[in-house]
Amino acid sequence: MKFSVLTLFPEMYSTFCGTSIVKHAIERGITEIECINIRDFSNNKFRHIDDTPYGGGAGMLMQVEPIDKAIASVRQENSYVVLMSPKAKPYKQADARRLMNKEHIVIICGHYEGLDYRAEELIDEKISIGDYVLSGGEVASMVVMDSIIRLQKGVIRDESLDEESFDNALLEYPQFTKPAEYKGRRVPEILLGGNHAKIRLWRKKMALYETLKYRKDLLRGRKFSEEEIRLLHQLKKELEEGKDPLYTYEV
Ligand code: ADE
What is the distance between the alpha carbons of residues 218 and 152, in angstroms, rounded to a whole number? Predict the structure, then answer.
């Protein structure tokens, strides 16, 4: 799939495109990222692309013409145009899954106090990465591209994606690597043995526990399997008995 990023700061993308998973996806031809400088479509010799708002008020607005022209310069038949903006519902993993199937995503990075409203009418969707205001859409666009690129086939192992937080509405269980003991803190015994059925249940229990601790809201309205209900009861018992669920597992 291809991304065309319309930005005032194309240089911000060189590290993003040249590092780690995104770099590999580009090298293997799974993803293409082109960065277009919106200033190239300015209608004046100063390369300005912003102006003061009609009706008064603080700040400057990005003008519609350079944005319209920049979009036209990259638009294909299958293009899906998004605007990075704090004025939208916060982005979720489900949005990454929905957008991963688009062939061409054009991302407009907003700046200043926003865009001329007529530019907003040129887009298919606005995306916010959270309820806070960034100085521009660039960092947000990298968040969105990263989340989509790593879902593309062949970028990372399918099994890694299967167990991830959010997709099944539970946070990921705790993971450990060598050494088995560090400053007296042991890796839970259950992970050192080879009983995969028990390990799977322990991980499910811990995923429920992590979600209860940090993101109870994700559990609201969720349908629990019989196994999950049993694990929740077990968790409750362990906590009531003052045990640390990390180190406890009873069948
Ligand atoms: N531009 C400024 N703030 C933003 C946000 N929270 N998400 C996306 N784009 C933005």
Answer: 25
The alpha carbon of residue 96 and the mean position of all alpha carbons in its chain are separated, in whole angstroms, by: 7
Nearest-10 crossing angle of helices 138-149, 20-27: 60
- The reply to whether ligand 1 has any atom less than 6 angstroms from the CB of 130 is yes
Residues shown for the chain: 251
Give mean pLDDT in consecutive 10-residue pieces for the chain, a chain of 251 residues.
98 98 98 98 96 95 98 98 96 97 98 92 97 97 98 89 74 96 96 95 96 94 94 96 90 47
Of 134, 139, 142, 146, the one to substitute when testing ligand 1's pocket (max ligand atoms within 8 A of C-beta) is 134
Q: What is the 3-state secondary structure (H, E, C) of 62-106?
A: ECHHHHHHHHHHHCCCCEEEEEECCCCCECCHHHHHHHCCCCEEE
